[in-house]
Amino acid sequence: MPKTVLVTGASSGIGRAAAIALARRGFTVYAGTRAALDYDGVTPVELDVTRDVSHLRELELDAVVNNAGIAVIGPLEYLPLDELRRQLEVNTVGQLAVIQACLPALRRTRGRIVNVSSISGRVALPLYGPYAASKFALEALSDALRQELRGSVHVSLIEPGAVATPIWQRTLAVTETPPEPYVRIAERLRAMAEDAERTGMPIDVVVGAIHRALTAARPRARYVLGRDARVMVTLARVLPVQAMDRLIARIVEQSR
């Protein structure tokens, strides 16, 4: 069972909860963060995934939980390209940078990589294009890595649906209202985000899946979490594209 793990994005949300839970379960936890931590029991490691991460090569690790991420949303028609670059740099390129730095250690220990993705890595909603693009890309990188590292390092994806975290509220708080004809869609998605914070799955569900991916004798390639995520994955697989588009439009419409 992996004993020493690096958790990125450990200052809040899923990363914070995972670092605390793993430490309590006997793991030695390195908590990658850009800010000071407000909890004990872990070893903080200064980490900005968009900058040089070569210092991670000094760590002896059994596992990496790639959780650091941001969410950029908005209509692609008006999206500043620098915002798309920022989204991909953090959620995709930065994840691979961490993996590359940690792979020598993980190969020595025949360790594990757990990439925290999203149902948005399977199904894209309107205005979530930048975020979904980063998660689709992370899924592709994870699939390729799983095949390339087969027999030496396990690679798993965590794919939660709506989670009760404030990430979308923080994102929406700094997101400008888009021009027409996207105002109504933005309002509906804002309502969905507010509802998710109240009714989304507890963070503990995601943390539990991370723990299973780290400790199972045969970890899964994917852990799809939440009824909403399982339903969307199934429908995307069986419905024609036009039917899936109509369903998503209906879901967005009902969020008012």
From TrEMBL:
Q: What is this protein called?
A: SDR family NAD(P)-dependent oxidoreductase
Query: What family is it from?
Result: Belongs to the short-chain dehydrogenases/reductases (SDR) family.
